[in-house]
């Protein structure tokens, strides 16, 4: 394949079913499950309702993205699907919003990584400067790895995914023997109505499913993408859902909500309470591996999405230039520079505070792409005059409606302040789109 095509170069068609499933699972199972029990403790056991609803919604979205990957094979994932279904401007807004979600997600994962490194190395926990250095160092180490190539990133993803699942499986199975049923009462400690508490918890838990569409983004680098991507996406979501619900149920049952809410390394504290300090250290080590793997996966995507958009001339051309390794180095560097700035801006809130602020922004930025992709298949088929009728039309319409309603409900749960800030970031893209249209028209005339 020529070097100027998407995902070309030495790494083309480097990702099979195992690597794609690892990309999906690795991008989802990371900072979310390792830090979210502390964030969710503010709601109490009712937060498990948020997990159940979010898991159902994520599975619907996984099916939607799997079907879309069979219709559209170009690089870019949600951006490519939206552009195909709704047109250039909608595609641009989704590329912009999804790109924001990716680099803000990188910032959130890096903060969680610093929290667990601090559990292992008390000097890091005691120093905000050291914690910040850990977060930024991880971002830039993995930026360099991804500049080296997609295949190298895929190998790291498989290894870290296997290693991260082991401690989580231990907690999510054996941990039930240490559960104290008294910790499940009262059900709701948030002071909000049950519906409001579940909605707010769901907005946070959706963070743990961001990345469910990961296998669709580097489509040009996937072996047999029409079969591999749908399978990897659905398998990945099912694995993640089982792990999330089991582990959170144990965490809430082992430690009181007031204790859990104050922890910067909640699963390590849970393991230490159950099995002693050695296990606390082992779980913290597993969390470092997990968040490192998630950071690696999101870093790969922060290059692929702007690269795909640049190939269609809706992002600046500099984002579409490949390095000598065949990777979008400019896009990787610029995206993670923004992630680094976001980490620095929010670190003064403390680890859990910074994590909550960043992930809500990442969730909000992802919900618009998810909402539009929900109906993208219907739009693509109607535009292509593929004759959807009867049961086929009903199935696509029902699936899209469920995905859209779920995305809207999760957006409501994000809160007014987060929606306001996220909307401002997305609206800020309009001048860039106008400039790109002017620049492209000028280039065509010259």
Automatic annotation (TrEMBL):
InterPro entries: AA/rel_permease1, APC_superfamily
GO cellular component, one term: plasma membrane
Keyword Cell division: no
Signal peptide positions on this chain: none
Gene3D superfamilies in the cross-refs: Amino acid/polyamine transporter I
Function: Major component of the acid-resistance (AR) system allowing enteric pathogens to survive the acidic environment in the stomach. Exchanges extracellular arginine for its intracellular decarboxylation product agmatine (Agm) thereby expelling intracellular protons. Probably undergoes several conformational states in order to translocate the substrate across the membrane; keeps the substrate accessible to only 1 side of the membrane at a time by opening and closing 3 membrane-internal gates.
UniProt similarity note: Belongs to the amino acid-polyamine-organocation (APC) superfamily. Basic amino acid/polyamine antiporter (APA) (TC 2.A.3.2) family.
The protein, known as: Arginine/agmatine antiporter
């Amino acid at each position: 394949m020529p070097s100027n095509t998407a995902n070309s170069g030495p790494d083309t068609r480097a990702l099979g079913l195992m690597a794609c499933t690892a990309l999906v699972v690795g991008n989802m199972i990371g900072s979310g499950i390792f830090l979210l029990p502390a964030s969710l403790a503010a709601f109490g056991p009712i937060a498990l309702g948020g997990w159940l609803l979010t898991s159902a919604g994520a599975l619907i979205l996984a099916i939607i993205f799997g079907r879309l990957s069979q219709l559209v094979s170009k690089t870019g994932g949600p951006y490519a699907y939206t552009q195909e279904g709704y047109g250039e401007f909608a595609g641009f807004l989704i590329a912009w919003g999804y790109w924001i979600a990716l680099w803000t997600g990188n910032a959130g994962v890096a903060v969680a990584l610093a929290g667990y490194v601090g559990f292992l190395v008390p000097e890091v926990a005691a120093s905000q400067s050291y914690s910040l250095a850990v977060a930024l160092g991880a971002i830039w180490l993995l930026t360099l790895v991804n500049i080296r190539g997609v295949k190298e990133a895929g190998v790291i993803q498989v290894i870290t995914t296997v290693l991260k699942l082991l401690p989580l499986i231990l907690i999510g199975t054996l941990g039930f023997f240490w559960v104290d049923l008294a910790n499940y009462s009262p059900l709701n400690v948030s002071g909000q109505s049950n519906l409001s508490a579940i909605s707010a918890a769901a907005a946070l838990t959706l963070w743990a499913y961001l990345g469910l569409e990961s296998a669709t983004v580097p489509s040009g680098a996937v072996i047999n993408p029409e079969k591999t991507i749908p399978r990897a996406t659905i398998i990945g979501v099912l694995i993640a859902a089982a792990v999330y619900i089991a582990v959170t149920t144990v965490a809430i049952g082992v430690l009181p909500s007031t204790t859990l809410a104050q922890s910067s390394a909640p699963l390590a504290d849970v393991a230490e309470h159950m099995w002693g300090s050695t296990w606390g250290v082992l779980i913290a080590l597993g969390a470092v591996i997990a968040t490192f793997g998630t950071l690696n996966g999101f870093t790969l995507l922060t290059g692929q999405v702007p690269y795909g958009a640049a190939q269609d001339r809706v992002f600046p051309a500099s984002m579409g230039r490949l390095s000598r390794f065949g990777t979008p180095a400019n896009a990787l560097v610029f995206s993670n520079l923004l992630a680094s700035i976001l980490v620095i801006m929010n670190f003064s809130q403390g680890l859990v505070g910074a994590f909550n602020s960043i992930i809500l922004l990442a969730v909000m930025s992802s919900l618009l792409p998810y909402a539009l992709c929900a109906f993208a298949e219907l739009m693509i088929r109607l535009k292509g005059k593929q004759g959807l009728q009867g049961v086929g039309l009903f199935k696509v319409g029902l699936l899209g409606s469920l995905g859209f309603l779920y995305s809207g409900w999760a957006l409501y749960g994000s809160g007014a302040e987060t929606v306001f800030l996220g909307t401002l970031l997305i609206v800020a893209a309009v001048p860039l789109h106008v400039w790109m249209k002017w620049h492209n028209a000028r280039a065509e005339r010259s």
